[in-house]
Amino acid sequence: MQRKLLKELLVWKNNPKRKPLLLEGARQVGKTYLLETLFGREYYSQTVRVNFEKADSELLSLFEGNIEPGRIINYLSLKEQKTINPENTLLIFDEIQEVPRALTSLKYFAEDAPEYHIAATGSLLGIALHSGTSFPVGKVDRLRLFPMDLEEFYWALGLKNSSDEAHEAINNLHRPLFSSLFRDAFLQYLAIGGMPAVVSEWSENKDINYVDSILKNILSDYKDDFSKHTTNSESRKIADVWSSIPRQFAKENHKFIYKTIEPSARSRDYAFALNWLLDAGLIYKIDLVTHGDKLPLSFYADTNDFKIYTLDVGLLRRLAGLPSSVVMGDDNIWSNFGGVFAEQFVLQQLFSSGIEETYYWTGNADNPKQPKGKSELDFVFSMGNNIIPIEVKSGYNVKAQSLRVYRDKYKPGLSIRFSLKDLEYNEGLLNIPLYYSFLLKDLVSQKDNLMQSQYIPVLPFNKNTL
């Protein structure tokens, strides 16, 4: 399986001003596989991996003493019986947050031994930092790995040539030719998700029962982390917030409500639990933006009014206890939960593509003296100097009152609607089929040319279609 972040790792490798690399991400999103198998074995003569989660007393004592780079390299060379040459060896510090002094050592590698290629992974780094671990500020390069996005899922199913052709088609202002292939695989992704172990099993064997067992095990491992790194009372609250996520989505308004956890819940009681899940990378927090026409959006975020999503749509399905047939078959439950899965899916694709400053919007949000309006827009993000609103629809019915209200109020240059309808452009409104979400950046870059395209339908603008 291939990962897009491999390109950025190659840029890091070839950068003469390279610093030690810190690859962050939630547990089991594929950090070690990416570094050791896809990157290390392919682009270095050898790799040396140190797993700090399984550090023995000898290794711990190494980092309790002098952490001068030469001493560390000499020890690891003897222990691994390998000559660690800076020119051809990738040294991997796996789960570096488990040994704080190992994290500190990156500072000295950056200052005193920059010739070495050192890449570290951190799954619970945010939690470790909040616990008092110091961070080598300015001394590391940082990348973040998310679960596999839709296009990486296509690649795993053997559709890489088709996805490459789809990118080429958009760049030439042509309609992609493989919509049925992509649509079928997209529905699989909604059920399977993007956790690499799950995708590997599905691509090789198509065994949904075993897929569900892997998802169940991942969720169990996350719960083990709750108790491993916190007190009993804290871990129970973290588990309560985590298990409440499907119930948060069951409301008509998906805004996070503490009382959904339990009737007596208050923010001060569960703030730690929520922040723990954020630091672990297990949830995404999407704040309300009060102004849809002012940059930077972060200046106008209401951090007390927010929604939360899980890191992966497959994990969300399993956390909610929904069978795969809800997504991949003809199931009436889909009419109730389809919108939730579509929102979760789109948000994942936004984060995976590097769009992290994402918010949601409601009518009257800019007027605290007025009650919030019924209009609620799923996502708003910025790209360059442009603010782009997004409406998400899970099917073919695309009437969108909220998007119309937003467009009337702010007059954005481009608005995006994700749905199952065909790719089309209506005077500033771009409808992107959910299964073409991987083409988002291509389409946005071509927005000024869409009106001239004879292959992408350009329909007369009609507010009644919103």
How would you characterize the overall build of this protein?
This protein has about 475 residues and is an alpha/beta fold. The protein folds into 2 domains: about 5-145, Rossmann fold (3-Layer(aba) Sandwich), CATH 3.40.50.300; about 150-465, no CATH class. It has helices at about 5-15, 30-45, 55-65, 70-80, 100-110, 125-130, 150-155, 160-170, 180-190, 195-205, 210-230, 230-250, 265-280, 315-320, 325-330, 335-350, 400-410, 440-445; strands spanning about 20-25, 45-50, 90-95, 115-120, 140-145, 285-290, 300-310, 360, 375-385, 385-390, 415-420, 425, 430-435. Strand 9 (about 375-385) and strand 10 form a beta hairpin. Helix 11 crosses helix 14 (about 315-320). The two termini are about 40 Å apart. Mean pLDDT is about 90; it is low at about 460-465.
Brief write-up:
With 466 residues, the chain is an alpha/beta fold. The protein has helices spanning 6-13, 31-43, 57-64, 69-80, 100-112, 125-130, 150-156, 160-171, 179-192, 196-205, 208-228, 232-250, 267-279, 313-319, 325-328, 334-352, 401-410, 440-445, and strands spanning 21-24, 46-51, 89-94, 117-122, 141-144, 283-289, 301-310, 358-362, 376-383, 386-392, 415-419, 424-426, 429-433.
